[in-house]
Design brief:
- It is built from twelve helices and ten strands.
- It has helices at residues 9-20, 67-82, 136-153, 171-185, 192-202, 210-216, 257-268, 286-300, 306-310, 312-332, 345-362, 364-374; strands at residues 29-34, 42-48, 53-59, 111-113, 116-122, 127-128, 223-225, 234-237, 243-246, 253-255.
Length: 375
């Protein structure tokens, strides 16, 4: 598409408005604005004329080729939560979950528009989120959010959930795909950062099967997982700071809770964040890990096994390595999965995650001791 073929901003806004109004909302749309900083979907905050707020999303079908499975999982989790009382939180609010708004014509809960998949979700009002953890209190709430989510859905039979992303958070599959990329295109020998990443991965391949081997041995079992419990997916009450929701449910599926726990700690215990420009600022902060893991275990401990707890340190290291491997692989593949601002963006993200792995490795005894203390 040429520059002159691109829709103007007003035309794009009118198209989004029409898409939002295809869903069963009570009043016309009077405002639309981009929302969040997700790496995969396009998200907008919708304000209706009656003051009601919604979240409009274009699902990335290159990542999620079967939108009906994604929507089905979200609906199934909602039905499961409807079967129990919503937990009352300390500040008086109840735990919430975004719900799918059906289409106005009764044709389902997502819209196929010009080959694009769109959905409208309820908005969780009076909340804030942050890309990085602000302090120890925030860290505890992030951990509690994941712990509450796991507690609420751990008894949802995995057979009732679709695998929306086959191989997602199965680290050996990412390594196999990476090896195929290397065979096809290799690494630019003039790029020092790429050569570093290639060596870094090669030196840690023995880590890759750790959790999957534990699954095969029967030490770990599948449960429903969130799949992407990073810091900015936790919504906090604007006034009390208490976690009231864990959003972005596209990756809910059967899996190992260790991937969720590790991803939560990976995301939350690096104060520099995933987009850090200064690699020297990237570190795994044990001072944040303590309240975050403590907050998680406060709610989730009743359904966790001995092996679940023992493998938490492994999970923290593995999931950080996995995300770095995914960023590096996407860089080699031409940036097809994650949104990028420039051609080296995924390579820079990979370097951040690999630096975080190094920090975790340097503190492995301390992390192990912390898990022993909190379990």
């Amino acid at each position: 598409m040429s520059a002159q073929d691109q829709p103007t901003a007003p035309a794009a806004a009118e198209r989004l408005k029409a898409i939002a109004e295809a869903f069963a909302i009570a009043a016309p749309v009077r405002g639309l604005a981009p929302l969040g900083s997700g790496n995969v979907n396009d998200t907008y905050r919708v304000e209706a004329a009656d003051g009601a707020l919604y979240v409009l999303q274009r699902l990335n079908t290159a990542v999620f080729p079967r939108p009906e499975l994604v929507m089905g999982n979200i609906a199934r989790v909602g039905e499961h939560l409807d079967g129990r009382n919503a937990p009352r939180l300390r500040g008086g609010r109840s735990w919430e979950m975004p719900r799918l708004v059906p289409l106005r014509d009764g044709g389902g809960d997502w819209l196929d528009k010009d080959g694009e998949a769109w959905r409208l979700l309820t908005h969780i009002d009076d909340t804030v989120s942050h890309d990085t953890v602000q302090d120890a209190g925030h860290a505890r709430e992030v951990g509690r959010a994941l712990g509450r989510f796991h507690l609420l859905i751990h008894d949802l039979p995995c057979g009732q959930l679709a695998d929306t992303l086959e191989g997602f958070h199965v680290t050996p599959r990412y390594l196999a795909a990476y090896r195929e990329l290397l065979e096809r295109s290799g690494v630019d020998p003039t790029c020092e950062a790429s050569r570093f990443c290639q060596t870094f991965v090669a030196e840690r391949e023995e880590l890759v099967p750790a959790l999957e081997q534990a699954r095969e041995q029967g030490r770990l079992r599948e449960r429903p997982i969130h799949g992407d419990p990073k810091v900015n997916n936790v919504l906090l009450d604007r006034h009390s700071g208490e976690a009231v929701a864990l959003v972005d449910l596209d990756t809910v599926k059967p899996g190992l809770v260790q991937y969720d726990i590790g991803d939560c700690l990976r995301s939350g215990c690096n104060p520099a964040g995933e987009e850090a420009a200064d690699l020297n600022a990237v570190t795994f902060d044990l001072g944040l890990c303590r309240p975050m893991l403590g907050g998680y275990l406060e709610l989730a401990r009743p359904f966790l096994s001995q092996a679940d707890l023992e493998l938490i340190p492994t999970a923290v290291r593995l999931i950080s390595f996995e995300l770095g491997l995914r960023f590096f692989s996407d860089h080699l593949a031409g940036n097809r999965y994650f949104k990028c601002r420039h051609p080296r963006h995924n390579l820079e993200r990979a370097l951040v995650q690999f630096r975080l792995v190094e920090s975790i490795e340097a503190q492995e005894p301390e992390i192990q001791a912390l898990v022993e203390e909190l379990r």
